[in-house]
Write a structure and sequence with these properties.
The chain is of the alpha/beta class. It has a 5-stranded parallel β-sheet with strand order 3-2-1-4-5, sandwiched between helices. The mean pLDDT is about 85.
Length: about 150
């Protein structure tokens, strides 16, 4: 299963050793593929440069577990989904779709909040907590019949 990481998640994981960084390491250890795209990467790097430039070592270490799409996604998002998000968020959804991710892990509650848990062209936006609950919470064993 593939998990797309938006700029907010990348920034949070690089900024400090906290819950988001731990989530990414736990997802990777559990066998999930972590991906992002050039748009999310550029936004995260811009924010790090402005707010947390001293985190270069941590930023570099993250790239041991995250793969980035090789190039820009040419088509923003399918026409029927353009009104679901502000235009500035179209490239994030487009990258998640193009990467064939199952989950778009996002910290953007304001824009993606109404779409959380709903599949959009094969990708489901989830918060970090929802991502952890869905992918890392052990499932109870099936109930045995007597």
């Amino acid at each position: 299963m593939r998990v797309y990481l938006d700029a907010h998640i990348l920034f949070s994981a690089a900024k400090k050793a906290g819950a988001i960084r731990m989530l990414l390491h736990d997802l990777r250890a559990a066998g999930y593929e972590l991906v992002t795209g050039p748009h999310a990467l550029a936004e995260a790097e811009r924010n790090l440069g402005q707010k947390a430039a001293s985190q270069e070592k941590d930023w570099a270490a993250l790239w041991q577990i995250i793969r980035c799409l090789p190039g820009a996604v040419p088509d923003p998002i399918p026409e029927e989904s353009r009104d679901l998000l502000p235009e500035k968020d179209h490239p994030i959804l487009a990258e998640a779709i193009a990467s064939q991710s199952d989950i778009l892990c996002t910290g953007d509650q304001r824009h993606f909040g109404p779409l959380m848990g709903k599949s959009l062209h094969g990708v489901t936006p989830l918060s970090p907590v929802q991502t952890a609950q869905k992918l890392l919470t052990p499932k109870p064993p099936p109930h045995k019949k007597r």
